[in-house]
Design brief:
Length: 371
Amino acid sequence: MTTEMQEIAITEEKPLLTGQADTKDAELAARILLDQGQEHSIETPHGVLHVTLHGTRTTRRPAILTFHDVGLDSKSCFSPLFKFEEMQEIVKNFTLIHVDAPGQEEGAAAYPAGYQYPSMDTVAEMIPAVLQFFNFRTVIGVGVGAGAYVLSKFSIANPDSVEGLVLINIDTNARGWIDWAAQKLSSVTSSLTEQIVSHLFSQEELSSNTDLVQSHRERISKASNLVNIELFWKTYNSRRDLNIDRNSSFKCPVMLVVGDQAPYEDAAVECNSKMDPTTTSFLKMADAGGLPQLTQVTTNERPPKAWMLKLQQAELLLASSCMTRLSRSRTTSLSSSYSMDGSRSRSRTLSQGSQGGQMPPSPSQTMEVSC
């Protein structure tokens, strides 16, 4: 497939004096923290989507489009990540489009009895209407769990619309008979809240009953749209196999992210084995649980580390600039700054300790980070 890729120019700001730079950074941080976004209800061929937009809405470069997991909404899934100080470079340079699955936004009205919730395939078919509404030709997708599945489906169906993907806790497989039986048993012995919490968090996190686990358990159990959450949960468990293989499927750079204690570690590893190694990065995070985009910026047990955020920032910027037709000088500069020269056609390896952040000289397929 041959496509004309979008040219993007990233404008560098003029150098400032130290005091001016500090003041400007402080003002930027304050604006990001206070930005509540612009909420929109977007009509699609399959129903209405609640979408929140942050940023300048410039269409000169791709937007970052996020999609959350079951039991979360765009705010609870992504706000801590994109408000973290290490992500301010992304937030100030890109428009953020946070998409809520149908009926999953905070305060959504409960669907009536007998409501037919859209399938995962149908939800993915609603995304193009979002791009059309905001007049964006392409996006960089960031999805978690069910959201990673939806964005994968969207990318496969609309390859020209996606510059890159960051997929956290991806499971591309349909539920087998054993999984189906286990889910049926769980629905009898466990409440809906406990089923979803077990989907979101690792056994270690559940056993420790961390503050994050407790807060999400309470939020889900008291949600006014709990019936909607259940419908989305059932739909996700009825998903079809994506039939990923390295010879087709994704036409853009993909970064797979999973914690080594996450419920979907095996599924992510299996997905990685099916992907094209020349366009795929696999990041397995040591000592990380089910929601690394939250735990690594909110934990009180140790200082938050920016390793995942730095890697996401590098991947997103590479996907939006190096992988599109920038000028040669800018492409060379980005390649040099990320120590990626000569390795663009291979997956990358990173081993990071407490002083991490440097790329090793010989890339391979898996990136594993510990802290």
